[in-house]
Amino acid sequence: GNGDSTNEKQNIENDEGLSGSIQDVTNRNVKMLSQKGESFDVMLEEDRNEENQQKVQDNMLQQTKINANV
User: Fold this and answer.
1) CB under 8 Å to 25, separation ≥6 — which residues?
2) Residue ranges under compositional bias (Polar residues) (predicted)?
């Protein structure tokens, strides 16, 4: 690198990420968000809300399909 060790490390992490597991990707996203000053709890809360929102939408979709079939 050009003597900027942070850049070097970031590049290595990015390379790993391409073939990395979901967990690696999640960890990296968490790190990135943490760097933005987000608290871990807030992130988890947002994740849960998004998941729940998705479930609600899925359920509504199922209901609609069932009603359409009847």
Assistant:
1) 17
2) 20-29
